[in-house]
Specification:
alpha+beta, 7-stranded antiparallel beta sheet, 4-stranded mixed beta sheet, 16 strands, 27% strand
């Protein structure tokens, strides 16, 4: 005789269906947590994909990034070729970066560093971490302000002393310009301002202008830059700690991918100056970091002439007389 199931108890099929629903719910919860974790990672996670270390780079390293037309778009992707319609033969059809240790000699880099260091030590020095020397205007950080170092040199009759350094600068600039034209396939570019030396140490920032480590885009910050080039005058890990150059790229997951350049004496790093190359410099934690920033433009109205020590010092003196 077969016993009957008491009323109100679920059948075996119902029990199986209930267990399956519970299993599906648990799977759903796990998937939900995973999706949430992915979303958080997508928007907040920072990872490093490449570090260009201080080893010698004789064969130039190149990296292409997608160009952006909208300064608010920030749609840049590393290692992906993208083109735009050039406004002129000066503007590159491809955006990107290149890195080389064979454009400027280390001997020339040392000459330039000594030149900048001498003027900074003797006539200036910022109150915070950075000290800036603008080659064309003669503006030199002094405390929280700037002084006209060319006027001071003129007063002291020191123009001849630094002629060799300025010749070295002009030679280095010419070599860097040729490298930009070759790697980006352009012609007709010209030097633009500011062209400046920077010295950074671990001194605490005193004003907002001392906070050099914030993310920025050169075309937005300086206006006239089409191609930015950095000539490093000291070695990361030897002369200073921290202070690496960081490109902030977009991850395929939507987060930020850091592409890092370690400064090296004589190393040249150039890149297109638009939204495709947002970047920052890590805070220097020890020692002193020297670099020279040289930029090029396609706009003839914003091109500047080569710096000439005697001429700049004479012009500085004439300017002072006119305003006295």
């Amino acid at each position: 005789m077969v016993s009957k199931r008491p009323k109100g108890l679920p059948s075996r099929k119902q029990l199986r269906d209930t267990k399956q629903r519970q299993r599906n719910q648990r799977i759903g919860i796990v998937l939900g947590v995973a999706i949430l974790a992915f979303a958080v990672d997508r928007y907040f996670h920072t990872e490093t994909t490449a570090v260009y270390q201080a080893d010698t780079v004789r064969t130039p390293l190149t990296q292409q990034v997608s160009c952006t037309e909208d300064s608010n778009a920030l749609s840049y992707v590393p290692f992906v070729t993208s083109t735009r319609t050039p406004a002129s033969v000066c503007q590159s059809a491809q955006c990107g970066r290149f890195l080389s240790d064979a454009v400027v000699s280390q001997n020339d880099a040392v000459i330039l560093r000594k030149f900048a260091s001498t003027l900074m030590d003797k006539y200036g020095g910022g109150s915070g971490g950075p000290t800036i020397l603008d080659l064309h205007t003669g503006a030199l950080s002094y405390g929280s302000k700037f002084v006209d170092v060319y006027h001071t040199l003129r007063a002291n009759g020191e123009s001849i002393e630094h002629d060799h350094a300025l010749k070295t600068y002009r030679s280095a600039k010419a070599s860097i310009k040729r490298a930009v034209e070759r790697h980006f396939g352009v012609r007709g570019i010209g030097l633009t301002k500011p062209t400046f030396f920077s010295r950074i140490n671990s001194t605490e920032a005193k004003t907002s202008h001392d906070e050099y480590w914030h993310s920025h885009i050169d075309k937005v910050t300086y206006g006239t830059f089409e191609y930015t080039c950095l000539l490093y005058l000291t070695d990361y890990g030897v002369d200073f700690q921290g202070g690496r150059f960081v490109f902030e790229d977009k991850s395929y997951r939507g987060g930020v991918v850091d592409t890092i350049v370690e400064p090296k004496l004589g190393r040249v790093s150039c890149f297109t100056s638009g939204d495709e190359n947002p970047h920052h410099v890590e805070q220097v934690t020890d020692g002193t970091r020297f670099a020279l920033t040289i930029a090029f433009t396609c706009d003839e109205e914003h091109m500047i002439s080569e710096p000439d020590g005697k001429l700049l010092i004479e012009e500085s003196g004439q300017s002072k007389q006119k305003h006295s």
